[in-house]
Amino acid sequence: MKAVIFCGGKGTRLHEETEFKPKPLVQIGNMPILWHIMKLYAFYGVKEFILCLGYKGNAIKEYFLNFEQMSNDFTLNLRSPDKKIVYYSDSTLEDWIINFKDTGLESQTGSRLSRIKSLIGNDEDFFLTYGDGVSDININDLYAFHKEKDHILTITGVHPISPFGMLTIEDDGLVVNFKQKPKLDGRINGGFFVCKKEIFDYVSDDPDCVFEEAPMENLANDKQIVAYPHNGFWYAMDTQKQVNELNRMWASGNAAWKIWR
User: Fold this and answer.
1) What is the pLDDT of residue 67?
2) Cα separation, 22 vs 11, whole angstroms
3) Do residues 74 and 24 touch, judged by C-beta distance below 8 A?
């Protein structure tokens, strides 16, 4: 199976970073968040990817074209005619196949999805996610749920984390409980979709086609969406504060999404 990743948005709420690079290349630790997402899928054996490129898409191409040099220390012999690299300190190359697809600078998510249809097999289910969210979700369990329910779209429902501390207050005003940024009871769209090929009947090449609007509304009206409940870790990166928080988790050794070794 393939994993399709939306990588084309402008990330305007993260302007400090995305003025110079696309959002999926914002680093967590010393690697882009896109790499972290791909590592999760690869851990479960999903090693072919389709990247839906748009804003600064060439930077993503260049990153992977130079992946070995970008992700390892090395020694370069400048006197060699071909500038030969003579030593990698700890060379690591992923065994991935990556399809790079320019899906338009201004395209919305539904349009980007429509434009990769030719890269999906005729009878093939595929994974779909965003290029800015990490999780410890079990991809095998997600797919088993998708096959059991047998709908066109499986969406992962996650509990959002409150950006504020939550108070429990008695009638006389006494605070009897305080939780800093707790998980909320309801669920939201956490990405990490599984799709049947019939999903393409609901999207179009129109640049204004937003996957999360009319296509998903129509799928819901047709009773073709099911929600896989994920109760573990999930975190979306939209602001510099969230970038800093993910980097703090990584540096502390408590990156819950790092299930690979």
Assistant:
1) 86
2) 7
3) no
DSSP code at position 162: P
Q: Express the helix, strand and coil content of the chain in percent, nearest 5 each.
A: 30, 25, 45
Q: Smallest Cα–Cα separation from 21: which of 55, 49, 70, 48?
A: 55
End-to-end CA distance of the chain: 22
Q: Average pLDDT, stretch 34-46?
A: 96
Residue 152, classified by CB atoms within 10 Å of its CB into exposed (0-12), middle (13-18) or buried (19+), is buried
The closest alpha carbon to 89, from 77, 72, 68, belongs to: 72
Q: Give residue-wise pLDDT tens across range 46-85.
A: 999 999 999 999 999 999 998 887 777 777 777 776 667 6
3-class secondary structure, 129 = strand
- Please tell me the pTM assigned to this model: 0.87
Cβ atoms of 42 and 5 closer than 8 Å: no
The vertex-62 CA angle with 259 and 245, nearest 5°, equals: 40
Q: What percent of the chain has pLDDT over 90?
A: 67
Environment class of 79 (CB within 10 Å of its CB; exposed 0-12, middle 13-18, buried 19+):
exposed
User: Where exactly are the structural domains of the chain?
Assistant: 2-252
Report d(CA 127, CA 178) in Å as an integer: 38
1's enclosing H/E stretch is none
**Helix (H) or strand (E) run with residue 160 in it:** none
Q: Give the β-pairing of 31-32 and 48-53.
A: unpaired
Kindly report the length of the chain. 261
Query: What architecture is the 2-252 domain classified under in CATH?
Result: Alpha-Beta Complex (3.90)
Output the six-digit token pair for 7. 């990588």
